[in-house]
Each structure stands twice: as structure tokens, then as C-alpha cells.
Amino acid sequence: MTPLFLAACVSQRQQPYEVPTPRGFAVSPEYLEMYGERPNERFPLPATDVSEVNPRFLRQIVSYPTAEHPGTIVVDTDNHFLYLVQPGGKAIRYGIGVGKQGMSWRGRARVQRKAEWPRWTPTPDMIRREPKKNAPWAGGMKGGLDNPLGARALYLYQGNRDTLYRIHGTSEPWSIGKSMSSGCIRLFNQDIIDLYSRVPSGTNVLVLNRGKLSAPEATDEAPPPDDDFLPPEADF
Fold first, then answer.
1. What confidence tens digit (pLDDT) does each residue in 112-146 have?
2. Burial class for 190, CB neighbours closer than 10 Å (0-12, 13-18, 19+)
3. The model's pTM
4. Active-site annotation holds for 9
């Protein structure tokens, strides 16, 4: 709390000074556990520091009146939230980071494929743009703590057509609640693990994008199809 200073207590002219402002948010024991380490994961996941994250972007149950059926995923790109609709006018709300691809599409789709610790392959344009960073992974990066897709990924389709839209984890937890220059829809790794466990393949997804849609760019291409469908043992 900020202390109160009375002007009458100052007897002489004071030099200007900066009052230190505490940084971060108080984190409840519930959230410390929710975003704690996951040692039993294929790649043991460390705790995520959420002390600098606005609490509204942490996982919570909220009131969410909607005509969508329970079990539906609703992605609100403008407000950086993802909702998993629950019975009784409720939803589990997750904070998200929205990349360029995430801002370039809206509509209805379904989860056709799910992957644990998915592979990631930079596109040729990504390699040309940042060869030092991306060229070493031209053949694909195996799943792991440094993989940009994080601990889980959900792949959205319309019919048999890949929308190129992904809901996935992130190795950059500071990006949650923000709009990014690349990627689709990213969640804290602990949150994508939770969401992944709750939704089966075939889950309906509604993506809302009320603002001006961003035009897809060449640098935002989807991973090569053969990378998307590598057999599970190839992830090791």
C-alpha cells in the first residue's frame, strides 16, 4: 500500500526524489500450484513465473452466457482470451497471446489433430529472414522446452482442409495477453496442457475477430505438411 505523507510534516524544501513502485502482482497459493512445475512431463516442465502477469490472464472460471454448446472453444482474439464453454452459463477462461496468423482468420472449425510436445519446422521465408536463428532447424525441431509450439498443440480444420490455425503452448510466457508478430494462439504451457486434457478431437471451435483482420504474410506460413504428421515416435 502507498503510504500517506502530510504536507504539514515537511519543515524545509525537499529535493525531488522518486518513490519506488513495487513491481508485479501478488500470486495466490492456488496459482502458484496451477502454474507450478510438472516433473512428470516427457520434458520436465519448470514452474512459470506469473508474478508479472495481469491476474485477468490467469486461468479461471467466469460467467459466460453464450448460445455455444458446452465443450466448445471460443477464441476472442481482440481481448486475448480463450474460453472453454461449461454448463450453466460458465466457462474456463485462459489468457492467450495472439500472433499474426491468429489475427488473420475468423470463423468456425474443429480440432482434427492433437499433439503432445509437437515438432516445429521454420518455413523457407523464416529461414531467409533470420538464417542464424532458424536455419539450424530447417529439418525440424523436436519437441522440448525451447520449441516454439510448447507442450501441446491443437490443429484446426474445416472439413478436410487445414485452416493453418494452431492453438499451442509457448516457450515465451511473457507474451500472454499481448499481440505478437508471428504465430497463432499461444497459451502458458500449463494452460495448454490443461486445455488439451479437456478437449477431444472433433471439438468445435469458434474464432472471434471483431477488429480489422490482418493479411497473412509469407513469413507466417504454416509448418510443412510432413512436419505436422510425423509419427509420434519421431518426436523423440
1. 999 999 998 887 877 888 899 889 999 999 999 99
2. buried
3. 0.80
4. no
